[in-house]
Amino acid sequence: MTFMLNLAFIPLLIAAVIFGLLLHGLHRKVIARIQKRPGPPVWQEILHTLKFAFKQTWIPKTASQTVYVAVICLSLAIWIGALFTVWTGGSLLIIFACYMLHKIVEHGTGLSSGSPYTKFGAIRSVMSAAAELPLLVTVVVVYLFTGTLSLSGITAWEAVNGPLFLIAIPAAVSLFLIILSKAHYGPFSVIEAKELVSGYWTEHFGGWRAVLNIANALKTVVLLSVFVMLFFGALPWWLFLIVMIILMVVISFVCATTPMLTPYQTVTIQTIWTAVVCIYAVIVWVVMGL
Amino acid sequence: MMESILVQIPFGDMVHYLSGYTVLLFAVAALFVVLAIVSLPEKPVDIVFGTDGYTLKEIPKDTMKFQRFMAIACGVATVGAIISGDLFNFTLFAALIGILNIGIVAGVKNRHVLDSAFSYGLVVMMGTVPLFAGAAIAVAATGTLSIWELAGLGAVPLISKLLILLGVLGEGMAPFYIGKAEITRAPGAPYILMIHVSSLLLFLRVVEILLTV
């Protein structure tokens, strides 16, 4: 039974990679249309990934070679694990851990190559650690309302009590900001800002970039899926996909209409929001405790 | 007197605390210990200001050996903090991680980096006070330090939890270190990376503990 479950996961994984890359393509398309450019086709990111996969690939002479390769494998592993957790309705805490471990990937990718550009991308990644705390608060708030950290338990609770989106809007905003902070070309995307060429992954090219693209596609699918499950509950699969696409378009709209902030501004805004959402969590805790 | 205290305090489960969550963290910590053992450090590229030139920084062998030892020890301490089912053991491992992190930074023979190591040392040492105070309050309030026994009871006072969290934030000093420019003067992977890995995993573990107890 477990073997069959694992076997059924493989087609889902392939579909998630393709869908994630299409979402990234849609992201670029929407940004381009808002900026009155034709933009690339929606499937451009799939073509990009295929192109990178077959390009000549090597490891820079300055790199810490083992780490340079290992972080890419880690990146893929954690997001495949996160997708499996979402699929099996596992613990929200594991999703939280995967998201945090992605920081190590960003940091490791940046530090391993020896390039100053990637190193600054990596440093910015850790500087924006304040972005992770709202995610923790989201987890806590969801637990306070539902009494469980299991994704299947949370969706079951919502089936009885209604979507959490209606009663926990600040928590939803927090998770939305988390997803936004990981989107390409976003206001908080300082780790891959253009003054750093491509930021933390500048020196990962060819096959390495293809794997990172796949991992990032999975990351987008996982984060959007978790958002939908946490705040809208278990939806029919077609409606689930539509809500994910709508969320992606909203994120693209924000990315297209806001400038990229400086690292200082990013950390300041994230810290202020962390404080706000912590106060919200305390209020929820006090109210739910009464 | 001391013997009677030691007899009275149940130390709980010393090693076995493996859930799906801690297994994931354990795997990552173990991976980075292996990486610290087998990897050679990067050679940071320094751009010569005002020219097109650049230099490659070679890491002296003795520095590399010292940092490697500290990084491996830090990884092992992180593994300990992750799989420990005892609150006191966890705080000990957390304090050890803080000390070893200072060691990784202080291995670099550069005045600016050493100045920073001194600052981080102060933060880490200050972090041990709330860390152990939190554990002490927990044992005073509940009579046990075993996470197994405390799980789901909600018996640990909020102040104890907040102090432990504060202590871990002091010990896991990656954000403090990254906040300074000195990281750019020191070679990064895989030794400096261990500072981040241990800080992050320690934070993830304490979140699980605080939600459990």
Topology of this protein?
The complex is a heterodimer of chains A (290) and B (213).
Chain A (H helix, E strand, L loop, with lengths): L1 H33 L9 H10 L11 H23 L4 H21 L3 H12 L4 H15 L4 H11 L7 H13 L25 H26 L4 H21 L5 H27 L1
Chain B lengths: L1 H7 L11 H19 L6 E3 L6 E3 L4 H23 L3 H20 L4 H32 L4 H4 L7 H14 L2 H5 L12 H22 L1
Antiparallel strand pairs in B: 1-2
Helix pairs in contact in B: 2-3, 2-9, 3-4, 3-9, 4-5, 4-7, 4-9, 5-7, 7-9
End-to-end separation of chain B: 29 Å
- Mean of pLDDT of chain A: 86
The total domain count of chain A is: 1
Rg of chain A, Cα atoms, Å: 19 Å
> Total helix count of chain A?
11
**What multimeric state do the chains show?**
heterodimer
Cα shape of chain A: globular
Structural class of chain A: mainly alpha
Major interchain interface with per-chain residue totals = A-B, 42 and 37 residues
- Give me the side-by-side strand order of the main sheet of chain B: 1-2
Give me the Rg of chain B, rounded. Answer: 19 Å
Task: Give the H and E element order of chain A.
Answer: HHHHHHHHHHH
Count of structural domains of chain B = 1
Shape of chain B: elongated
The ordered H/E elements of chain B are HHEEHHHHHHH
Biggest sheet statistics of chain B? 2 strands, antiparallel
Helical proportion of chain B, percent range: 55-70%
**Helix content class of chain A:** over 70%
Would you identify the regions of chain B where 5 or more consecutive residues have pLDDT less than 50? none
State mean pLDDT of chain B (0 to 100 scale): 80
